[in-house]
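REQUEST ID: PR-0412
SUBMITTED BY: lab tech R.K.
PRIORITY: routine
TASK: structure prediction, single protein chain
INPUT:
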Amino acid sequence: MPIGTRTTPNAHWQDWVTLVLGVWLFAAPWVMNYVAVPVAAWNSWIFGAVIAVLSIAALVQFARWEEWINAAIGLWLLISPWALGIAAPENRNLVWNFMAVGIVVGALALWEALTSREPPRLAV
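STATUS: complete
OUTPUT:
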């Protein structure tokens, strides 16, 4: 296996998808043109970066806690448009973006957290 130390082959495709979604979320304020909505843009930049970093960490060395954090971020992305007060009709596209990314990131993270086994740790 070229990356990481997984217990089953091809078990990390979810992390690749999550990495792409993290990069997308980070780039979305520019691509979808909502840089002028600072709260939404910062929400994308911060959580997109965190999702991407955790996905890379999971690809290198799987740890269940990384998946639980991504699952929590997925939940946050689902509720953040309303929690941050940006869920207005003129922001419909960015709300849908947060919701779609949140659902997929959360679902993939839960799937991995509940079905993957952590590699055994070496005793020191």
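NOTES: The chain has one domain: 13-115.
REVIEWED BY: pending
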